[in-house]
Specification:
Blueprint: H1 2-7, H2 12-30, E1 35-41, E2 46-51
Antiparallel strand pairs: 1-2
């Protein structure tokens, strides 16, 4: 576990959880979603959606 945590960026889990909650919120609110996930590049800080 210590090794896995040493390879992880600080706060990455909360960031990905917020993105996931946003997708769920859109699904519940609108009844559909345009994307079913995302790729987050920590080096460039770019987020790319995964289209359905």
């Amino acid at each position: 576990m210590a090794e896995a945590l040493s390879k992880q960026e600080l706060l990455i889990n909360s960031t990905l959880a917020q993105f996931g909650c946003n997708i769920l919120w859109k699904m519940f609110r609108n009844g559909m979603i345009d994307h079913h996930g995302l790729f987050l590049n920590l080096e460039t800080l770019k987020v790319n959606p995964i289209n359905i």
